[in-house]
Amino acid sequence: MADLIKLLCELPGVSGREEAVADFVEAFAKQYTPDVYRDPLGNVIVRKRGKKTPDKPVMLAAHMDEVGFFVNYITDGGLLKLIPVGGLYGQSLAGRTLWLPRADLYGVLGFAPVHLRKERENVPKLEDMYLDIGAKSREEAEEKVRLGDMAVFHAPILPLGEDCVCGKALDDRLGCAMMLEMLMGELPIDTFFAFTVQEELGLRGAQTAAFAVRPGTAIVLDVGGGADNAGFSDADRIAVQGAGPILSYADGATFYDMDLFEAACGVAQRNGIPWQTKTRLSGGTDAGAIHKAGAGCRVIGVSVAGRNIHSAASSVNMTDAKNALKLVKLILEYLANADV
């Protein structure tokens, strides 16, 4: 799975511009099932037959998009102004290197030097920054860049300590990698895999994917923001990296199906898989749209605690990721035996 994570994370795929990721996913999935299509919004929907066909479809979902930027202005001096795509915060931006894939060039996010700013303690804002691509004039910049160009963090996936990796887009290329891993093996039940778009803009792709598949049960895979490394303690930590996958009973977008939550906890316990749940109702996943689509859907969330998400230096624990993958496979077995 580590190789898949690296390949997926290093592809550019800001919300609404996920084509490179979708191309990779589509080509990969077609090696293991012929039932692959891309819907008009850009979701990649994959169906793979299992040992059993459920009464109502079972769907796994993970989002392909990442936070990033669009170019929206070029100054007379050749500097680029950017707008954020998804939740981005000033403290994670200054001095970062960005890549503009269409032009295949790099730039550095900068702003007035700290010793020249009057309000040194204020968190820098994206609107106060510029992207320097080395151009000396608007005309020179316009030879390479145009308004609407996508920019992503330039941050390769790197090992961090003995059991972690760090880089960009782990939220949620990790979930995508987990689903691709599952496509390579036998499944206990027919399963739809929804690789969704525009999650970071409001769960948009998940809504259309769920409307098309009409699942009776869905498992949503994501990377959840842990707050165990930033001075938080006890209940404020949300989740702890290295403590196992997160099983959610609720978050900022969804109250998860309690029977499925209890069943998933039982599956983890019986199989010796460490797990945790959130201690704060923060964030949200594609489940927020999926559980309301069509006539409604039972949902369960399985996430991996990530540090510094929505930045160029997010990290996850690979043992957590492997345990999450193992748990999702076992939940599918449970669903196959429960006649869902």
Structural write-up:
This protein is an alpha+beta fold. It has two domains: 2-66 and 168-337, Zn peptidases (Aminopeptidase), CATH 3.40.630; 68-153, Beta Barrel (Elongation Factor Tu (Ef-tu), domain 3), CATH 2.40.30. It contains eight helices and 16 strands. The strands form two sheets. Strands 1, 2, 3, 10, 11, 12, 13, 14, 15 and 16 form a ten-stranded mixed sheet that branches. Strand 6 and strand 7 form a beta hairpin. The longest helix has 20 residues, at 318-337. The radius of gyration is 21 Å and the shape is globular. The model has no long low-confidence stretch (mean pLDDT 92).
Label this structure with key terms.
single chain, 340 residues, alpha+beta, Aminopeptidase, Elongation Factor Tu (Ef-tu), domain 3, ten-stranded mixed sheet, six-stranded antiparallel sheet, 8 helices, 16 strands
CATH architecture of the largest domain: 3-Layer(aba) Sandwich
Major sheet: size, sense and barrel closure? 10 strands, mixed
Order of helices and strands: HHEEEEEEEEHEEEHEHEEHHEEH
Number of strands: 16
Q: Which word captures the global form?
A: globular
- Integer-rounded radius of gyration: 21 Å
Question: Unreliable runs, pLDDT <50, ≥5 residues?
Answer: none
Brief write-up:
This protein is 25% helix and 24% strand.
What order do the helices and strands come in, and which of them pair?
Elements: H1 2-9, H2 19-29, E1 36-38, E2 44-48, E3 58-63, E4 68-74, E5 80-85, E6 97-100, E7 105-110, E8 130-132, H3 138-142, E9 150-153, E10 158-160, E11 164-167, H4 170-183, E12 191-196, H5 204-213, E13 217-225, E14 246-248, H6 258-270, H7 287-290, E15 298-307, E16 314-317, H8 318-337
Parallel strand pairs: 3-12, 3-13, 13-15
Antiparallel strand pairs: 1-2, 2-12, 4-5, 4-9, 6-7, 6-9, 7-8, 10-11, 11-16, 14-15, 15-16
